[in-house]
Amino acid sequence: MDLDDILALAETGRPSPLERARARRVARAAQSQYDRSLAEGYEILVDTDLVDPLTAEVDEAIRIARAAQLTKLGTITWTAGAGRAAASGRLSWSDEMSMIFGRPPGTLRLTPETLVELVHPADVQTVRAAVAAVWADECPGEVVFRVIQPGGSVRHVHCHLEVLTTAGRPSGIIATGEDVTAVELARQERRRLTTRNQMLCADLALRDVPGGPQTRGNFTDEVDRARRTTDGALLVVVAEPTTRPPDALSDEDHDQLAAAVAQLLRTAVGDDVACGLVAPGLWGVLLTPSHEQTAAVEAVAERVVETFRSNLFGVGPRTLRLGTWAGLVRFEKGASATAFDLLIDAEHAARDARRAGVPVVVLDQPVRDEDRTDRCRSRVRYAVSANRFALFAQPIFDLARNEVTRHEILLRVRSETGEPAPPWAFLDMAERVGEILSVDKWVVDHALELIGRGAQTSHYQVNISGRSLADPGLLDYVTEAIRRHRVKPDCLTFEITETALIENRKEALAFATGIREIGCHLALDDFGTGYDALAHLRYLPVDLVKIDGTFVVDLCRSPADQAIVSMLVTLCHTLGIRVAAEHVQDEETIEFLRKCAVDLAQGYWTGRPEPIVVGPDQRVDSIELELRLPSPRTAIG
């Protein structure tokens, strides 16, 4: 658009105040360009005085349409008929607007009906509401909507809506529009990215405590990365109370002791050395050539042992001295032994040091696979035959009834001093060497024995690892144990961990079907962490779903977790499935779960695990037996 076009446009009608302001801005820009051209010596072929000639009387709709045409915009004009009724009015559109709607000019006669058909069905009411508001208020407006072009493609159109007047009275509406598909899609993408960034949260399973030891998973990642790239040594330190305390240590005591040990270990080896809690009472230290200590790894191990032995640890009102031994295994770059293998070798070396009465046992290379497997199997079989286990129970809170109605039975593995400890590292080892079934049978038999001796009116969840589902005799074993211990089947709910069903789908379905046939219920644990979570709800006769604790532990501070939990509750209730939440730790989380209509809650807020005591006068409400399958792991643990 040059100066002549602007002047010609300005002469075609009486502008509104807004158009006058726009014309003055364009005129000033033209005047500035004109002055610069003169100053630079350009020859002006056509000269004219810049005045405001907007005085001619021209139809307002024509004037706006002409302006839109000059700026490559399209227009739709509705002229009201008698009584200002839309039905008696007339619709027309410009060639440019026809092209925006995907119609060649002159091929479609525009009517209110055809216009509605061209607009996306989801946006029809939005367009009608915008037009009605502009007409009723007699003031400009705007609207963005989608149109469906021939062939089904969808485009986004942005329209400015203005009221036409005749003799000072409203006589119609004109919409000046443009195709803003690219702009609208870019805006939607920015909004999506903003929402995604707000919702994205860290993986709690991989999160380490700042300044504290790494988790087992993170530490094994470090070890595997090191063995692929360099030589090094892995040190495992066993630190256990020298005597069993008169009173069993609580979970808070164990947490306090672990924090003190981690701080002392960090002081002994330095801040730049990777350390991790690899099992209850077992600490790993990775030494590589980048650390000065590597030249004398035996000296490092002996210094750590001596530091631990000479220190008194405060646990509540008591002080404890830790018996400490260490195992050290060297590895070369590219070693075939995995991080898990190295951890097992170093742990066995530490236990050999204890039996031999020496501070440290050093292995110059990893143990042969056959020897390692045989030793692990012997450890598991000995623990089962010697009953080196204990059963604890943790309450589960019914949010609707506002009381504890269930308990989960948790397995503990006793240390050399008889102190019960969480079994996660032990069960991992038992599963890897194919000895988990014997542990599972011990748990089932002893749990059902306790249940049979009680009132059989409380839910108890018994943890069993997932590899057992592949055993075709599991269902018969459980059925026989129920009969032998005289446990009521309708008081039992077997719980299957959702993350392990991929490899055992056929066996899981057979077990689920069989256990339901004898009168027990079925639950799905750790829901949301597997690869086929929703598919499991279609073919498994599930009565209860337990949402994995990783979605609950940070629930009140994570919009992503809130969205996931709300969706899962709605889905499960629609399918007739009850919902439980794990790892509940505070009242704030309980209130959010109530709002989401979650049925059950479990965690430190409901109560910490306690040793099971079944007395003749004890009353419990019902029994729940949980079949827990471990989450899938990589070869590094």
UniProtKB/TrEMBL annotation:
Q: Which is an annotated Pfam family here?
A: EAL
Record-annotated membrane-spanning stretches: none
Gene3D superfamilies, sorted: 3.30.70.270, EAL domain, PAS domain
Q: Where is the EAL domain?
A: 373-623
Name recorded for this polypeptide: EAL domain-containing protein
Q: Report the SUPFAM superfamilies cross-referenced here.
A: EAL domain-like, PYP-like sensor domain (PAS domain)
Read off the InterPro entries from this record.
Cyclic-di-GMP_PDE-like, EAL_dom, EAL_sf, PAS, PAS-like_dom_sf, PAS_fold_3, Rev_trsase/Diguanyl_cyclase
Signal sequence segment: none
